[in-house]
Each structure stands twice: as C-alpha cells, then as structure tokens.
Amino acid sequence: MSAPTTVSVFKARVGSYPGLTMVPQEIIAAARTKLTSYMEQNLFRDFRVFGFGSNLCVIIAHDSGPGAKNIIDIMWLVIETCADMGIRMKLHGVGEDIFPDTGAEHERPGRPEGTELSFSERRCNPFILFASDRVTPGSFNLPLLRIFGDPLGNPALSVDRTMSAGFSFEVVDLASSRTQVFETPRDLNRLIAYLGSGGRSERIITAVSHVDSRGQFLDGELIASASTPLIHWKDGAIPASGGLAIVRAEEGLPATGDILAPFSIPRVVQGFWERHGSAPLTPMVSTAPPSTLGSFAVVAALGFNLSGGKLIGPCDMFSGPEWTEVRSHFTRVAMYLHSNLLS
C-alpha cells in the first residue's frame, strides 16, 4: 500500500450575514487566496474551501499525519484573517464557536474544531464530507450507527465479507472526557444504550474502524470520523454551531447511497432556535442554506475522491431531485415543531 495521506477538515464561525444564513463570498475568496499561497510553498498537497450556513469550512489533503502542528498553524492563520474581515464587515457571530465571549477573556484553543482521516490510497478513494450547522454535537451519531451498525439499513453489513465482522466505534463523553470503544454487532445494544443516556449532545461517536477487514485495510485504519466541540457555554450548555464528519465509501466500505440513506429520515435533533428547541436535521444544498425559522438544523454532504494526494470534487450529494421532496417533508415537520416551541 502507498504511504498514508491525511485528509483534515476544519470549521469556524468567522462571520455570516444576515444572522446565521451564510458566509460572504469575500471571506471565502480571502481564505482561498491564503491557502493557495501556502500550497504553492508545498506545505500540503491540496485543499478546498467553502461556506455552509454560518461556518467557513476547509478541507486539506497533506502528508504530515494526524494532528500535524504545521497544518493547525496554517488553519489558525486562515481563521484569524477571515475573522478580522468579519469584524471589519460587522458580521454576525464572529468567533463565537471558539470563545464564549468572542475571545475577550479566553485563551485560544489548541486547535480549530475539525476532524481527520489518515489512510493509504486504494484503487479508488471516495469519501463524503458532512457539515452540519445550527445543531448541537452528536448529530452524526445515529447516521454513523445506521451506516456501520444496522444491517437492515445497510444490507452490505451482512453480505460483504469485508464488513460482516463488524466495526469498532470510539465514543467520547464530553461531560467526563472519557473515551469508550464498542464493537458491533457484539456490543450493539450497549452502544445504543450508552449513546441514548447522559444527554444526546454529550456522547459523540468520533471514530469508526473495521474489527476485521480480512486484510483489505491496515489495522486500526479509520474509515469514518466526526468532530467534537471546542467549548461549553458559561451556563454549561453545548453550543449549537454544528459539526463535521468524514465517511469513506465503496470497495469494502459502505456504498455511497447507503451512507446518504440515513439522512432521508426526519430525525429530530437539538439545536433549533440556538439550542433551545428541536428540529429535523435537514439535508440541504451546500450553496443554499435556509433563511426561515431563524435556526433551522441543517446538514450538507460533499463528495470527493482522492488521487495521488489530490482532491477531485466536490460533488454536492444533496442536490439531486430526490432530495427536494425530502426537504419539503422535513420543512413541514420543522414548522410544526417551531409552532409549538413555546407551548
């Protein structure tokens, strides 16, 4: 197998308008210009930058490995440049997912919020990046569980020899900072019970790997990962600033359609109206976030392929006509829940 390539994704609220609706194109262009200058210095292999809802999102392909300080330093420089622009443009929510009080009395966290996968390239290397907004952490728990743990939702878990041995789920408890590992199908009931207790936003599936891939993948090689929040608010609540997840696909891994399928079910999550209510996590076109109801819980899916350390894509996975009907159904559910918010 080839030397591993690391795919790192980061997000930050660097300012949006109006309210939480979208990041200005001027800020996205500034981030792209700065990242291009770093790539030309051979500091990483490739990148993409986009805005979704109130978040600026960056994906970087590099050879520096997980947790690389040089990549983290680059991201802080990009975030600081964009946040300065957001302040000058008097945009909403600059830095609020990094500092509870916009950074006035707090040290900067060790790294921006994000997640990453490091893997050796195969014959083809598709993966999907999910970005959510206006929702508390844990929004990817149920989709990841259905993708890698539910043979009724993903039949390949039963018939594909590479996947039939099951998967290992790493779960972080935000309240205690403890990490536990569960193996499916053996620990499936325990995993469901653990995720369902202690608050839906406090326990997060952060990594998924094969239990036994029959030699198709390196031992311990991650096939999915999800981010955890940087901070808690002063009242102990977790901010509803969304999260990120990366899921690899195909050839011994779940098919693209099976990865997207859980997002077609209207699953109610916390975070609606800035974490004070609930709404279905609605799959949206990445360039068209909703403007209604103030704090619609939303998720975007961008498909990529990795080839020689270079990114091919993105393909907006929720832009197809079948998702239009899904969005209409989800919107009706959200509006009903919103009408009962204060009842």
3D architecture notes:
There is one protein chain. The protein is an alpha+beta fold and about 350 residues long. The protein has one domain. It is built from eight helices and 15 strands. The protein has helices at about 25-40, 70-90, 140-150, 155-160, 190-195, 255-260, 270-275, 320-340; strands at about 5-10, 45-50, 55-60, 115-120, 125-135, 165-175, 180-185, 205-210, 220-225, 245-250, 270, 275-280, 280-285, 300-305, 310-315. The strands form three sheets. Strands 5, 6, 7, 8, 9, 10, 13, 14 and 15 form a nine-stranded mixed sheet that branches. Strand 2 (about 45-50) and strand 3 form a beta hairpin. Helix 1 (about 25-40) runs antiparallel to helix 2 (about 70-90). It is globular and about 55 Å long. Residues about 100-105 have low confidence and may be disordered.
